[in-house]
Amino acid sequence: ELAEAHEAVLANRLLDFLKEREDVRILGQDHAAPGKRASTIAFHARAMPSYHIAQKLADHQIAAGAGDFYALRCVQALGMDADDGVVRVSLVHYNSMAEVDRLVEALGEILPNA
After folding, report:
1. Rounded Cα distance, 44 and 49, in Å
2. Is-above-0.70 flag for pTM?
3. What is the CATH number of the domain that holds 50?
4. Lower CB count within 10 Å: N or C terminus of the chain?
């Protein structure tokens, strides 16, 4: 229970940042609560390819993936470009708020001003 609660706090920090951006689409619920949403966050930024965002995060020493994550039909059903896919970040119990703050700061630098 403590791990789930911690993950929800971390996820909400990222989700709150993403919700503020008009150029970002969050896949799934935009609020994390224990037992209601996993702390794996997928999003798409209209102004920049997902692979580019993931690479820029890697340049900041932050691990993130990009693509369809073996859910091609789901990506297509959501009306998204299957070649671009989404950016996916997984937050877990051993991540710290400082790490999520660093992720948010990096995304703020990477994504164009909305």
Report:
1. 8
2. yes
3. 3.90.1150.10
4. N
